[in-house]
Structures are given as C-alpha cells and as structure tokens.
Amino acid sequence: MEAVVGLILLLLRVSQGVETYCDGRQDRAQCYGALGGTVDVQLMTSALVLARYWWNENRTVILDGIKTRIMSNLLEDRSSFTPSNGTFRITNLSRNDSGEYQLEAIDLDGNIERRTLHLTIQAPVGSVLLLSECLSEGQMRASCSSEGGDSPQYSWTLDGHTLTHAELLSGNNETNSITLKQHVSGRLLCSVRNQVSRVSREETITDCDRSLLICGVRAAVGVLLLICITAYFAWKKANSNKTEGSAVAGTREHPENSVLMVEL
C-alpha cells in the first residue's frame, strides 16, 4: 500500500508544471495533456470575429460565449478562456477530461463552422532505470524500464548517435531491451517518452571482454584464497588430532605414571 501511495505522489510531483499545447483550429485534431498538468487548447484564432460560439463534450456545453463575453464556463474553477487569441486553458487535468470535444461557431456574417478534437490525458514518465550485464561471450545486454507513464516509447543512442546494426546483436532502437555486440563501449543512453513527457538515463559501458577478464581474475584469486584457508584449517585439525593421539597412547603404556603426566 505504501509503495502505491509513493508512486502516486511521485507521478503527481512529475506532472505538476507539465504544460502542453494543442492547435484545435484544424478539424479532427489530436490533443494530449499530462495527468495533473495543464493544457492550452487554441479553439480559434480570435473570438472577436464571432457572433456566438459553443464548446461541447458529449453534448454538454463546456464554454458558451459571445465575442469577449463569457456566458458560461462549466470548468471555471480550473480553466480560463482568452477571447483575443481563442485559447482555452485547463489546469489540474484528470482522466475524466479525456474525450471528444466539438466547437460550434457563428461568425458575424451568419456562417456556421463545426470542428471536433480529441483530448487524451496521459500520465507522464516518472523516472528511468537502466541496467546492463555482460554475457558469457563478451556481449552486453541492456534493459530500460520506466516508472509510471502511459504508452511509453523507447529509443537508444551510443555517444550521441543512434545504434546501428554493426553495434546491435539483437533488439532495435525502439525496444526496451537490447544486446550489444562484442567490443562495443561508450556512453549508452536510453530515452523513454510519451506524448506529454520525456526522460533519459545514461551509463558509460566498457568492453565486456576486458570486464570479464577482470571478473575472472578476481574470481580466481577468491578461489585460491578459499583453498588456502581450507587447507590451513585441515592442517591445523590434523595436527590437533595427532597431539591428542600421542597423549592417549602415553597414558596407556605407563598407567602408573598417568597422574604424574597430567600434573606435568
């Protein structure tokens, strides 16, 4: 339960201050907003040239206005509309804000225009974890995972350039796990993004063959040290048993001197 609460708090901290922009002047526009963040939707170039306009969602009137006069705003506690540039700003976005919206506008000549846009609210990517491990034949496997974030997309670079087939053994630049060929080294960077956020993590990787050699030497030294310690304790135990055996044998050969031997 504590982990879930911590994740929610992290996502809220990440999403706070995330602002996105959407140009809704084109019909069927696709817009995105960050969960807990702010989105600026430009509904029109200016409301000053319109006689009347309505912005609806599922037949519910969100905004109703006449030129610069706002007749009603269903989201007035967390939104604002600027008639001069036709921008509707919504803050503290929630999942419920996702949906299809329709704009109906009547210009000064009586012409009617209708447009729709779809707004999708996504949780931004919180953080990125990059893990790498050397394989037995000198290759390196790298995996990238993100905390939170809806519909994450992955990309990889090495020393600032996109990974090539000469460097990749398996996977590609759009998967979260890749395997690099032998002798590949440099600054490996994984980026995770969606429509409202982008987070990266970088790690300097070295030649796996050299790393495996170092690990092998360390392992050999450890094994040798373990053998020496085991041999020492075995030798010590053998000497102890030999001493105890000599003492018992002396007692049996000269029982009359056993008390004297103990005293000595």
Automatic annotation (TrEMBL):
List GO terms (cellular component aspect). membrane
* Signal peptide limits: 1-17
Under Gene3D superfamilies, the record lists:
Immunoglobulins
Q: Does the keyword field hold Ribonucleoprotein?
A: no
According to its UniProt record, where is this protein mainly located? membrane
State the UniProt keywords alphabetically. Answer: Glycoprotein, Membrane, Signal, Transmembrane, Transmembrane helix
Q: Which residues cross the membrane?
A: 211-235
What subcellular locations does the record give? Membrane
Q: Where is the Ig-like domain?
A: 124-206
Supply the InterPro entries for this chain.
CD2/SLAM_rcpt, Ig-like_dom, Ig-like_dom_sf, Ig-like_fold
Looking up PROSITE patterns in the UniProt record yields:
IG_LIKE (PS50835)
Q: Which PANTHER family match?
A: IMMUNOGLOBULIN V-SET DOMAIN-CONTAINING PROTEIN, SIGNALING LYMPHOCYTIC ACTIVATION MOLECULE
> What is the name attached to this protein's record?
Hepatocyte cell adhesion molecule-like isoform X3
